[in-house]
Amino acid sequence: MKDLIGVSEIGIVSKNVPNAVKKLNELGIPNFEESSENFAPIGDEHGLFIIVHKGREWFFSNGKEAVSYPVEVWIENIGHITFTLDEDFVIHDIHLIVFP
Fold first, then answer.
1. What is the pTM of this model?
2. How buried is 42 (Cβ within 10 angstroms: 0-12 exposed, 13-18 middle, 19+ buried)?
3. Distance from C-alpha of 50 to C-alpha of 11, rounded to nearest angstrom
């Protein structure tokens, strides 16, 4: 496993985009722009989750459909979140994380 210090965007596939948005909003991660039932950019100019419904075509991908891959993120001042293969996510260790 490799670690990255920062990522501009992470594509996340969800069974229920509005529910995923609600959960992330409750953690303090804001909507970046308007969202729909199938697409939602969540975060800010430092990093975004692009939440999409399974099967939605990724922009500029030549027809690639959205599928799930597991990813773990640690968000400063929020905590540790695991996005799973079954298109859901698990919130771990919600406590203040401060990076040097």
1. 0.80
2. buried
3. 5
C-alpha span between 43 and 71 (Å, rounded): 16
N residues, the chain: 100
Q: What would the pLDDT profile of 17-48 be if each residue is shown by its tens digit?
A: 999 899 899 888 999 999 899 999 999 998 99
Give the residues across from 42 on adjacent strands. Answer: 31, 49
d(CA 75, CA 12): 15
Residue 38, amino acid: N
pLDDT at position 80 over 50: yes
CA dist list (Å): 3 to 62, 65, 72, 81? 29, 26, 10, 14
